[in-house]
């Protein structure tokens, strides 16, 4: 009897050991080791450009009582014009589309307007290829299809859902379980699990819901034609219609790099080869480079590290959590660089209340440095998010700008999400630099509205429990940012 019990324990111990090793191996491989798909973490050449236009969306209050709100919206108005001006092809890559999440509230009809513009273009030019790359979030990870994409498909637009399974997993604790057991069930049948992204969206199947828990995405926001492109932080998603965002419109040889990087996403997802444009002549006062995923972080750290006493860094960001960036900003301030941050207070995300993570603990950490030249203000959000993701690094000989879809978090910058940014080198007296500096100063100084609040405005609202949650999230990478 004792022998049988001993044998049973050995069998159980052996089985558990095999499972544990398999779990750790699967988590390590899929989260840290697995090669990223060819063409991601893209570092384009530094190209010349004659003009680069900055576009902004802002929602703000005009009085201290908060009774008069104003909306300035440029980004999608210009995207509609880009669609109208296209003559050969259009490539779009947007993280979110549609109205789900509105739940009876009134928002700008961005999704409807974008789809209508694309349908009109297809009707006027039926032979023009239009490609729409998007995140499978818009299909409930296989549980349904958005009506907007159904209309586009019927009109001949090629819709490409990004194959996120090719990416590294962003939550190691879940990755081992998901890869060994969870990813195998079939995604068939009717959905029956309430959609956690939007209460008015269709239900999800179990398989779709378990896929969602990986929390990784094609987070890009871009449109490219044969003659111009816009790289943005804004989604054509109605409930995001009042968010504060920034975009950059570019022309010239850099378009070839944008198309090459987008083609990599298409091909890894079973999509087609994308068209190309003639590169054109390298000329103009600006230098522009297309960077994606981890290459955004590498270039950013190099630019911050290059700053010296008397230089300046402006940062506008939804999420600031990447440790290397935080440390680089602190080091720059210690060297005498004037560092100024405008951050979202992280009150809401996807229309749901949040706990101020990660920005409020980071703000506390930065304030505790005691450095007078490291300053922070909160954007005075109403019901929206300060969704901008832009950095300006002004040095003696040039200004370097980084802007696009990338939050400063490990998910965005460590090859878990698919992201897109433009890195721009510009003369200090150029129109673009003057416009961007005027934007930052307008918000910082509350020149014609109450745009920003003092850095202590939200700090008292972060409880010890919330700080503890933040510490655990950092350690275990269990976050949504």
TrEMBL record:
GO biological process, one term: phosphorus metabolic process
Entry superkingdom: Bacteria
Residue span, Phospholipase D-like domain: 302-444
InterPro entries: PLD-like_dom
Pfam families: PLDc_2
Name of protein: Phospholipase
Organism listed in the record: Planococcus lenghuensis
């Amino acid at each position: 009897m004792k022998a049988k019990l001993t044998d049973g324990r050995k069998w159980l111990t052996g089985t558990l050991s095999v499972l544990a090793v398999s779990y750790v191996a699967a988590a390590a491989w899929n989260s840290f080791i697995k090669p990223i798909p060819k063409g991601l973490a893209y570092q384009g050449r530094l190209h010349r450009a004659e003009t680069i236009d900055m576009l902004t969306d802002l929602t703000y209050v005009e009085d201290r009582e908060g009774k008069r709100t104003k909306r300035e919206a440029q980004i999608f108005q210009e995207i509609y014009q880009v669609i109208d001006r296209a003559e050969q092809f259009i490539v779009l890559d947007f993280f979110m589309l549609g109205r789900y999440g509105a739940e009876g509230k009134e928002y700008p009809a961005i999704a409807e307007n974008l789809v209508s513009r694309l349908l009109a273009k297809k009707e006027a030019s039926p032979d023009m290829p239009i490609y729409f790359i998007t995140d499978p979030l818009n299909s409930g990870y296989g549980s349904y299809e958005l009506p907007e994409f159904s209309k586009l498909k019927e009109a001949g637009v090629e819709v490409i859902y990004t194959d996120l399974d090719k990416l590294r997993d962003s939550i190691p604790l879940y990755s081992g379980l998901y890869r060994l057991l969870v990813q195998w069930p079939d995604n068939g049948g009717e959905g029956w699990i309430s959609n956690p992204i939007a209460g008015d969206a269709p239900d999800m199947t179990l398989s779709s819901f378990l896929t969602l828990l990986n929390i990784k995405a094609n987070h890009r926001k871009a449109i490219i034609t044969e003659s111009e492109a816009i790289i943005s932080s804004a989604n054509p998603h109605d409930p995001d219609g009042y968010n504060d965002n920034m975009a950059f419109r570019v022309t010239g040889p850099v378009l070839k790099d944008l198309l090459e990087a987008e083609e990599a996403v298409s091909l890894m997802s079973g999509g087609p080869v994308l068209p190309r444009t003639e590169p054109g002549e390298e000329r103009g006062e600006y230098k522009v480079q297309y960077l994606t995923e981890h290459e955004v972080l590498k270039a950013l750290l190099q630019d911050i590290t290059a700053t010296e006493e008397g230089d300046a860094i402006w940062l506008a960001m939804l999420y600031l959590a990447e440790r290397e960036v935080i440390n680089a900003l602190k080091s720059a301030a210690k060297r005498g660089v004037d560092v100024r941050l405008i951050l979202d207070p992280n009150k809401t995300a996807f229309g749901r209340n949040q706990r101020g993570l990660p920005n409020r603990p980071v703000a506390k950490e930065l304030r505790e440095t005691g450095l007078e030249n490291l300053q922070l203000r909160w954007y005075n959000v109403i019901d929206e998010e300060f969704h901008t993701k832009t950095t300006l690094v002004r040095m003696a000989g040039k200004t370097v700008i980084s802007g696009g879809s990338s939050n400063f978090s490990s998910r965005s910058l460590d090859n878990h999400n698919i992201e897109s940014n433009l890195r721009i080198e510009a003369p200090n007296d150029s129109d673009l630099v003057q416009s961007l500096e005027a934007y930052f100063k307008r918000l910082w100084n509350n020149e014609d509205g109450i745009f920003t609040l003092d850095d202590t405005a939200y700090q008292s609202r972060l409880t010890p429990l919330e700080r503890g949650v933040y510490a655990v999230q950092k350690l275990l990478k269990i976050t949504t940012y």
